[in-house]
Amino acid sequence: MEKRLLRSTSNKWVGGVCGGIAEYFGWNADPLRLVWVILTFFTVFSGGILYLVLWMIMPRADTYLYK
Q1: What pairs with residue 7 in β-bridges?
Q2: Per-residue b/e over 18-37, b at no fewer than 16 CB within 10 Å?
Q3: In the chain, what is the straight-line distance between the N-terminal and C-terminal CA atoms, in Å?
Q4: Cβ 29 vs Cβ 19: under 8 Å
Q5: For residue 2, what pLDDT band results from cuts at 50, 70 and 90?
Q6: Would you kindly state where each structural domain of the chain is located, as residue ranges?
Q7: Tens of pLDDT along 16-50?
Q8: How far apart are CA 27 and CA 17, in angstroms?
């Protein structure tokens, strides 16, 4: 089965984007969330905009059908 980048439904706070990225790479989601928030504030909220875009384009893990 191929590995897909999906939003997490079990490891999420807002939209599951950081949880999905962490699951894809095998990382812990909490440090990733912290880094994401810090970078969002230091890059004039471009991290927040990127989060919203990823939230819209990444499919949720529970709605994706594996074949």
Answers
A1: 60
A2: bbbbbbeeeeebeebbeebe
A3: 8
A4: yes
A5: confident
A6: 1-61
A7: 999 999 999 999 999 999 999 999 999 999 999 99
A8: 13
